[in-house]
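<instruction>
Derive structure tokens from the sequence
<entry> Chain with its tokenised backbone below:
===
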Amino acid sequence: MPAALPIHELAALVTALCWAITSLVSAGPAGHLGAFAFNRLRQTSVALLLAAYVALSGRWHALSIHDVGLLLLSGAVGIFVGDTLLFTAMNRLGPRRTGVLFALNAPMAAILGWALLGESLPLAAALGVVLSACGVMLAILFGGRPGQSHHLESIKGPLWAGVTFGLCAALGQACGSIIARPLMQAGIDPFAASMLRVGMAAACLTTLMALPLPAVQPRGPLTWPVALLTIFTGVLAMGVGMTLLLFALSGGKTGIISTLSATSPVLILPMLWLRTGQRPAAGAWAGALCVVAGMGLIFLGR
């Protein structure tokens, strides 16, 4: 009898591919609109699409008030905070550096699980955390090459500020995943879960942007090309990618799924090469591979 197709593991890899493509496509509209306006549009559009599907399919009936509350909290922390800071970092560091930083959400989740939930952190996992951190430093400090002039590889503003935003984005994603993980393992429908998480993030952003704060207002006007690209990135990253990740977590081993879904820093390198015509530096490849290898150690050791 043929072996069963590793559908949950394949879903995790497709998630990483969706996030890698999104990183490249998002750079333009996110820089034009700013992180807040960009995220509000993409999250609102995805929430509406998911709400229509969930309402028509009746998938929301299995949710309890307790489940809804935890998923809303997960969306506020993981998507509202995490995604907004992610694209703030991307506007400063570009998609490659930001992707490597954001991949640290997996080691952060392991450390949080050990510190807050009493989960074990064996020697292999601890070495994986160190290897991932070294990989990030390698990719950030030595990932560029002399003569690279493409705007996707440029750094805007102080490097430390962009790195701080990227690390905080990864921490937000890690916290959001820890909150949602027990619910997904209990069999909560991934479409309904995604709808609540993304809808909460969209509501938080809409409320924030209603305040008279210049820093959260759109940078540039919303044009049709920018709007369509923004909505496309939302559907790809959150409608498809995040739902696939939640599906993968519902049936696959958490360590394997988390590692496979975090391979975006490696997948984005050949895409960036094709997009810019400039081969990424050896430090970029080495750093990305170290990050993925470190995450593999983390979850194989758990």
Remarks:
- The chain has a mean pLDDT of 83.
